[in-house]
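Need the bound structure for fe (ii) ion, inputs here:
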Amino acid sequence: MNPSLPVDLLADAGIDETRIAIAPGAVLLRKFAEHMATPMLAAIGQVITQAPMRHMYTPGGRRMSVAMSNCGTYGWVTDQRGYRYTRTDPVSGKAWPPMPDVFREMARKAAEQAGYSDFNPDACLINRYMPGSRMALHQDKDEHDFSAPIVSMSFGLDATFLFGGPRRTDRPQRIPLGHGDVLVWGGPSRLHYHGITPLASGNHALTGDRRINLTLRRAR
Ligand SMILES: O=C(O)CCC(=O)C(=O)O
Ligand SMILES: [Fe+2]
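Answer from helper R.:
Posting the output first, comments after.
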């Protein structure tokens, strides 16, 4: 089977169905990372042997249903002291594992496709969703500079991404995300509220009973 064939036929017909505008500054790149899923999942496996996935606690004391780890110069953490980026993993006291080149390059290419040149992420959050795991509507606003976009990659089970507006009360769009899909948002939508509805159970050939998300950002 040649999975790229239907896309090529669409491209020949002048239809670019893989690149979908979501909002000003926000683009969904369907299956953009699919061809690199196997090496990327292997790289995630390497990272989490050094910085194991863990359930963090919100500043309000709630255990997050999503398990997380990080790689890159900075890692995003949350505990009773608040949401922030750290250079070291609070569990081990060691630096976060380096960001695999394959993550950095995929993120850079996706950002470019979405109209953001020279994206240079210094932080990669790894999110693991099991059935029932969710992420409530929030803004990504712990970064110092909002000029860089966010690049978010999905692997494994399908999810429903909620993409809202600049106010928490703005009614979100429901965007189905599948294996290999990459969502990029920045510019006018950089601070838009977003989240993930509770993951449905299922089985994926590469990830089994879970969804893995990589969220790449410029923290500093
Ligand atoms: O899992 C996702 O697709 C979204 C993750 C997210 O919004 C975040 O980690 O800030
Ligand atoms: Fe987010």
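Comments: Residues 7 and 35 are 13 Å apart (CA to CA). The first helix runs from residue 5 to 12.
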